[in-house]
User: Fold this.
Amino acid sequence: MNIGDVSTRCGLPAKTIRYYEDIGLVTPARGENGYRSFREQDLHKLSFLGRARTLGFTIEDCRTLMALYEDETRASADVKKVARDHLRKIEDKIADLEAMRDTLTHLVDACAGDNRPDCPILKDLGQDLAG
Amino acid sequence: MNIGDVSTRCGLPAKTIRYYEDIGLVTPARGENGYRSFREQDLHKLSFLGRARTLGFTIEDCRTLMALYEDETRASADVKKVARDHLRKIEDKIADLEAMRDTLTHLVDACAGDNRPDCPILKDLGQDLAG
DNA sequence: CTTGACCTTCCCCTGACTGGAACCCTTATC
DNA sequence: GATAAGGGTTCCAGTCAGGGGAAGGTCAAG
Assistant:
């Protein structure tokens, strides 16, 4: 399988697949013409990576998860720890974004949005830190 | 005022302040020794930028907002548009993260987290796309 | 034989900084 | 006057996870 086929089948851009080879996440064979030659196993790995990435795991997390995936003697506790740590980070990020959202919602609601210069959004931003 | 004083007063790292000068967001004067010499007005600008950044606005948004802030003939509608567009992006991000969170929460709850290899998290990640 | 689609490597670009090196300036102390 | 600490300055490289695009090799069809 050439990279284009793999790309359509696993849903990752060819660029991304090359990058994953670059950083050692996959190691496809090479044909005589120099083209990458992917086996089903490589495709499966790439699907795994794609799925993990859509769940927001970092590349380093993916590396760890992949190693655990391929280690038949793993402890599920190790997997769970990676996932739970990641989950916590996501929850933190959500909380941060929700704080921004709430403030912004208030400000946007308070702004007339007309052609006059008076604007509570700018008023908030321009407030002195002490105030 | 030297950069260190400004840094403590506006809460931005000196590195960040230098960066903001680099990209033209502030233009402090220079003393004879080559040191940046900040006026109250510069400090105020930097506070504005810091506040806008904590609300998640991009640097380009900040540039726009700053220009509006300094334009006495602005229309509040223009400010509101920037804020609302940004708000929409934040809401999208929250939705994405919540989807991740929900999936991860399910998976983490389903994982025994013991020393056996069986793991629903890895099972999910390793699933074929068709499945 | 040529066209077009595919593949290769290579390098630069992103956003918003952060870290660090190498060097200059100021102030206090001895 | 020497020196050391603690400012400041510039510049270069790195972060994360790829994306864009150039220059060139390969392959299948007409």
Observations:
- Chain B touches chain A through 58 residues (CB under 8 Å).
- Chain B has two domains: 1-56, 91-131.
